[in-house]
Each structure stands twice: as C-alpha cells, then as structure tokens.
Amino acid sequence: MTRSRSEYRRTSLTTRTPLHYGITAVAAHTVDREVLATLLLDAYRGTIDDEGEDHDDALAAIDHYLGTIIPEHSVVLFEGDRAVALSFVVVVDGVHYIDPVTTAASHKGRGLGTAAVMESLRSLAAADVHIVGATITDGNTPSERLFTSLGFTRVGRWGTSAE
Ligand SMILES: CC(C)(COP(=O)(O)OP(=O)(O)OC[C@H]1O[C@@H](n2cnc3c(N)ncnc32)[C@H](O)[C@@H]1OP(=O)(O)O)[C@@H](O)C(=O)NCCC(=O)NCCS
C-alpha cells in the first residue's frame, strides 16, 4: 500500500498542561534499548504505520534512533517502572522534528503522547528552538490530532514542495 506523509510545523509557544500525576519523564538515552523497542513495537502495532515489524526490527529502529536523536530533547515517560510513552527529537536539514512520538497501546487516549511531546517542546523552547516539525502519515488521525492540538499546522506533503 502506498502511503503519503505530510509535514507539519509549529512556531507558536503556546503551552498546555504538563505531566500527569504519577508520570515521570526520563532522558531517552538513559533507558534500556529493549524497553524502548518493546514500547515502539507495542505502540505501532495495528496502526496505519504498522508494516508487520517484529522485535528485532524494533530494536534496529531504536538503535538507529539512539544514534540520531538529540539527547537533551528526547524523553521517555514512565508510570512507575513501566515506559508508557516517548518523544524523540531529530534534526533534518537544520529543522528540529518530533520523530517519533509513541504511546503504549494500553495507555493511549490519556494525554500521554501529548505530554511527551510537550516535554520535548519545553526543552526545545528552553534551548531557544521555536520552530519544530513533524511528519505524519496521512490518515494517522491520533497523530494529526495530537500535533494540531499543540499548534502544529500542515505545511505540505513531506519530501516535496508544499501542496
Ligand atoms: C499518536 C499517538 C502517539 C497518540 O498518543 P496518545 O497518548 O493516545 O495521545 P493523546 O492521548 O495525548 O491524544 C492526542 C490527541 O489524539 C486524539 N486521539 C487519541 N487516540 C485517538 C484515536 N484512536 N482516534 C482519534 N483520535 C485520537 C486525542 O483525542 C487527542 O486529541 P485532542 O487533543 O484533540 O482531544 C499514539 O496513538 C501512538 O503511539 N500511535 C502509534 C505511533 C504513531 O503513529 N506515532 C506518530 C508518528 S508521527
């Protein structure tokens, strides 16, 4: 199946409610790669972006992310000792992007994806980075809603000139 992706940007400094009760934020690079891979696989399973990846695929993806993310802006949210959401930040062509944000299947719809991205946005703002992008597979409604509710607007199709 051919999927298209769109690019979104956020330039405002609007902030929303921070972390939920009982949720703590931890720097991504301090979290075990197996824990991150389990969260990634669980979050994507059954979604529009699920391509049938297995745990080894998820581990390879996490190893790639750990080599490319900006550590100080990339966070993992824990509920107790369980990793429940993450927001990673990468730089592409000089622009900071949230890529990816994921929430454990059992914890979706509780605001944790939003809270994770807010943590990254807060950290980016503190570093004077106010233009932040995201690329979203068209039809990924939860992700589209998450980012638009945080002030991101669609600027065009990813990888092409705006349209
Ligand atoms: C996208 C994702 C991170 C959202 O995480 P979440 O913790 O459930 O998000 P939140 O609870 O903070 O909700 C964010 C918004 O999405 C909406 N939303 C959440 N789940 C939804 C669903 N199944 N259908 C429609 N909207 C949904 C919420 O209502 C909220 O919108 P609002 O602020 O307008 O009310 C999660 O669905 C996920 O991990 N998906 C797989 C990975 C992925 O696609 N990541 C995005 C890559 S760019």
Reconstruct the topology from this structure.
Elements: E1 5-10, E2 23-27, H1 33-44, H2 55-68, E3 75-79, E4 82-92, E5 95-103, H3 112-126, E6 132-137, H4 141-149, E7 153-157
Parallel strand pairs: 5-6
Antiparallel strand pairs: 1-6, 1-7, 2-3, 3-4, 4-5
Bound molecules: coenzyme A (COA).
Residues 43-44, 47, 49, 85, 100-103, 108-114, 134, 136, 140-143, 145-146, 149 line the site of coenzyme A.
What does this molecule look like?
By secondary structure, this protein is of the alpha+beta class. The chain has a single domain, classed as 3-Layer(aba) Sandwich (Aminopeptidase), CATH 3.40.630. Helices cover 31% and strands 29% of the residues. It is built from four helices and seven strands; from the N terminus they run ββααβββαβαβ. Strands 2-3-4-5-6-1-7 form a seven-stranded mixed beta sheet, sandwiched between helices. Strand 4 and strand 5 form a beta hairpin. Helix 1 crosses helix 2. It is globular, with a radius of gyration of 15 Å. The two termini are 22 Å apart. The mean pLDDT is 92. The structure holds coenzyme A. Coenzyme A (COA) binds next to helix 1, strand 5, helix 3, strand 6 and helix 4.
